[in-house]
């Protein structure tokens, strides 16, 4: 690990474009130990007043420092936004969730093994260096949203549920603003080192949830082992039916794309339709139309199809065996 300075922020005014924020440290410190990230200056935000979960309008304002464990266990989240609670509990381990924060979780870096190995070419780590994953081991890589410059997945669970809940990210800094989560993470294109709209010197202060959507909430995560592992495929679903038809459908996907993934065409197909296997197969066809595999991750295409159909059957009360 390289030398760095450490400063504990007393207010947001203490942030600077030259200092890297540290919150729970569960991702950043690992990357610093491997020298994948080598920030010369750290600013610790854990003493800022960003820890509460408060009502806002008909929804909720979740402070950026709320720990993943506390958020998953929060009674209002469990009652009104259970997809979020389930996604959080499907992520990492108990110890990690006790440290990990809402803001840090949104900002977590990819788990592409080439990104972690400084001997390998990686456009995300060293812009312009190339991408060792393309033509390499691609089992965990993206089938949606990739470019010829980067095929790494966004690895998190929480953000996938937040996408299905239409969450908004509150940003403070020189230009305070709110950004829909759908626009917060960037596609890699030819600049995979740029992962979010956050500028140097800016901080996530909160995540805003709109009014509870009601309906059935599901978070289905397929992974290599149950104790803890990143998603191979995950599906967050909020589905309501009325009079035998789907009245609300919000679906987001993890483990398969370069950012938390949502496809409005899939939801438009489902809304107003009667649940059926034929409908769900068509939804999967639409979702997978832009999918591209890189060899070893080909299995994610049928896996995502099956995970989506099984989740929709479950959420609409159909028998689970497809
Ligand atoms: C073994 C292991 C297994 C894991 N498994 C999973 C899993 O299954 N699912 C999952 O979703 N996650 C998983 N994680 C990732 C874990 O959830 C993240 O490490 C954690 O959420 C990061 O939060 P943190 O507060 O510790 O962030 P930090 O490590 O402190 O920071 C991470 C990044 O966010 C930035 N940052 C932090 N807070 C802010 C803020 N408020 N505003 C702007 N930038 C900020 C930091 O500068 C840094 O770049 C796993 C991690 C480990 C180590
Ligand atoms: S997939 Fe992205 S993160 Fe992985 S090596 Fe290629 S450029 Fe780097």
TrEMBL record:
PROSITE patterns documented for this protein: FAD_PCMH
Keywords: FAD, Flavoprotein
Pfam families, A to Z: CO_deh_flav_C, FAD_binding_5
SUPFAM superfamilies: CO dehydrogenase flavoprotein C-terminal domain-like, FAD-binding/transporter-associated domain-like
Transcription is among the record's keywords: no
Domain FAD-binding PCMH-type residue range list: 1-214
Protein name, as recorded: Molybdopterin dehydrogenase
Organism expressing this protein natively: Paracoccus acridae
């Amino acid at each position: 690990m390289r030398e760095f300075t450490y400063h504990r922020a007393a207010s947001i005014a203490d942030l600077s474009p030259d200092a890297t924020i540290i919150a729970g440290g569960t991702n950043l410190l690992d990357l610093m130990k491997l020298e994948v990230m080598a920030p010369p200056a750290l600013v610790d935000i854990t003493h800022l007043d960003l820890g509460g979960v408060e009502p806002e309008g008909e929804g909720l304002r979740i402070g950026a420092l709320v720990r993943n464990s506390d958020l998953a266990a929060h009674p209002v989240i469990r009652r009104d936004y259970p997809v979020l609670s389930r996604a959080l509990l499907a992520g990492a381990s108990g110890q990690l969730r006790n440290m990990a924060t809402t803001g840090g979780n949104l900002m977590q870096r990819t788990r592409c093994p080439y990104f972690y190995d400084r001997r390998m070419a990686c456009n995300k780590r060293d812009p312009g260096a190339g991408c060792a994953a393309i033509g390499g081991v691609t089992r965990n890589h993206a089938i949606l949203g990739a470019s010829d410059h980067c095929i790494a997945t966004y690895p998190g669970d929480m953000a996938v549920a937040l996408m299905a809940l239409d969450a908004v990210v509150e940003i403070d800094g020189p230009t305070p603003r709110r950004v829909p989560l759908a626009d917060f993470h960037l596609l890699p294109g030819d600049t995979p080192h740029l992962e979010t709209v956050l500028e140097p010197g800016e901080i996530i202060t909160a995540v805003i949830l709109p009014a509870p959507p009601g309906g059935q909430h599901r978070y289905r995560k397929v992974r290599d082992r149950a104790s803890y592992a990143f998603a191979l495929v995950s599906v967050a679903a909020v589905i309501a039916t009325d009079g035998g038809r789907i009245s609300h459908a919000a679906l987001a996907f993890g483990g398969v794309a370069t950012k938390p993934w949502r496809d409005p065409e899939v939801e438009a197909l489902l809304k107003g339709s009667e649940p059926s296997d034929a409908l769900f197969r068509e939804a999967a066809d639409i979702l997978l139309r832009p999918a591209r595999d890189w060899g070893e991750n080909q299995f994610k295409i049928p896996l995502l199809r099956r995970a989506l159909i099984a989740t929709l059957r479950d959420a609409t009360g159909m028998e689970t065996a497809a």
